[in-house]
Design brief:
The chain is of the alpha/beta class and about 170 residues long. The chain is built from eight helices and five strands, in the order βαβααβαβααβαα. It has a single domain, classed as HUPs (Rossmann fold, 3-Layer(aba) Sandwich).
Length: about 170
């Protein structure tokens, strides 16, 4: 059996990864898709005021919402799949779940980022490449705007404010 783990979070990028996996592996009768959502762990000082049952129900509800679109798509395609959710750091949780399920590959959807964003953001794809022995397929979204392709971040609110300050002076 060819087990494929697809992390889902309800974003267009994760939907794109699901569609890519179906297009690439959906014709294989031995393919089995496993959707996985990663929920953030609650801080201890928040968690101590809530019961474990309440936290579990909250995580389960949010995970079901995040996977609804991907689950519906796989059902429409008539493919075998399952769904779980885990809590913790995205990269480590995805790796651990893929290892636990004995998956043969991970198909991860991500957006294209400019060089400045890649420098400061905690990328799940980069983390998985660093810590996982399971093959990782990264499916990227649409292309970046022209300014961002050259490593120049697009004008954000801070840059616009600075520009206005210069014009006013």
């Amino acid at each position: 059996m060819n087990k494929i783990l697809i992390p889902v979070d309800g974003s267009k990028n994760s939907e794109m990864a699901v569609k890519h996996a179906v297009k690439t592996y959906g014709q294989d009768p031995n393919a089995y898709f496993h959707l996985c959502n990663v929920q953030p762990a609650l801080y201890h000082h928040i968690g101590k005021f809530l019961s474990k049952q309440t936290i579990h129900e909250w995580h389960a509800e949010r995970a079901a919402q995040a996977s609804a679109s991907a689950s519906a798509y796989l059902e429409r395609q008539g493919l075998n799949f399952s769904f779980t959710y885990v809590c913790g750091d995205k990269g480590a949780a995805i790796r651990d779940e893929a290892a636990r399920l004995e998956c043969h590959r991970i198909v991860l959807g991500t957006s294209k980022k400019n060089s400045l964003s890649r420098l400061f953001e905690n990328s799940t794809a980069a983390k998985l490449l660093e810590i996982s022995d399971i093959p990782l397929e990264v499916v990227t979204g649409s292309s970046l705007p022209a300014l961002e392709r050259w490593g120049i971040p697009a004008l954000g609110a801070g840059a616009a404010t600075a520009l206005m300050a210069v014009v006013i002076d």
